[in-house]
Structure formats: structure tokens, C-alpha cells
Specification:
The chain is mostly helical. It has a single domain, classed as Up-down Bundle (Methane Monooxygenase Hydroxylase, Chain G, domain 1). The protein contains three helices and no strands. Helix 1 packs antiparallel against helix 2 and helix 1 packs parallel to helix 3. It is elongated, with a radius of gyration of 16 Å. The relative contact order is 0.22. GO terms for molecular function: metal ion binding; transferase activity. This is PTS cellobiose transporter subunit IIA.
């Protein structure tokens, strides 16, 4: 059985990362690029923590520990993938806003 603590850790870290990424876009839109980059760094740190939790599950399965696939686990994976995408897109938005502000 997959530890619910691991699942909830993935959800929490991913949610925090997504929030930081969205905050970064707002800062960039307002011209505060230093603060936007800080938010992206924070998002990346949270995603690294989420990924470490995910890796625990992968390593356990690779060692023969079978897991029941629960809706909660799928939800956690969904959060992680979405948070990664939002972080990448936020980084692109920052670059676009920087280019626009330089014109």
C-alpha cells in the first residue's frame, strides 16, 4: 500500500509550486522581474521536493513492492505534472514580459 503521507506530500509540494509559479507571472506582469525569478526558484525547489517523494514510490516499485493505484495517487501525479507545466510556462511568460518591457 502506498503511504498516504507520501501522496499528500506530492500534492502539497506541487500545489505550492504551482502557486509560486502563478505568483511569478503576476510579478512579471507588474515589472518586478527579480521577485518573479525568486518565485520561479521557489517553485523549482518545491517541485524538487515533490519529485523526491515520487522517486520513493518508483524505487519501492522497482524493488518489487507493488502498489495499489488509488484515485488519490493519480490525483497527486496530476498535480505534479500540472505544476511542472505551469512552472515552465511561467518562466516563458517572464521572458516575454521582459522583452516587452525593454521595447
Amino acid at each position: 500500500m502506498v503511504s498516504e503521507m507520501v501522496i499528500f506530500s506530492i500534492i502539497t509540494y506541487s500545489g505550492d509550486a504551482r502557486s509560486s509559479s502563478m505568483e511569478a507571472i503576476t510579478y512579471a506582469k507588474n515589472g518586478d522581474f527579480d521577485k518573479a525569478r525568486e518565485c520561479i526558484e521557489e517553485a523549482s525547489k518545491k517541485l524538487e521536493l515533490a519529485h523526491k517523494e515520487q522517486t520513493k514510490l518508483i524505487q519501492a516499485e522497482a524493488q518489487g513492492q507493488k502498489h495499489d493505484i488509488s484515485l488519490l495517487l493519480i490525483h497527486a501525479q496530476d498535480h505534479l505534472m500540472n505544476a511542472m507545466t505551469v512552472r515552465d510556462l511561467a518562466d516563458e511568460f517572464i521572458n516575454i514580459y521582459m522583452k516587452i518591457s525593454n521595447k
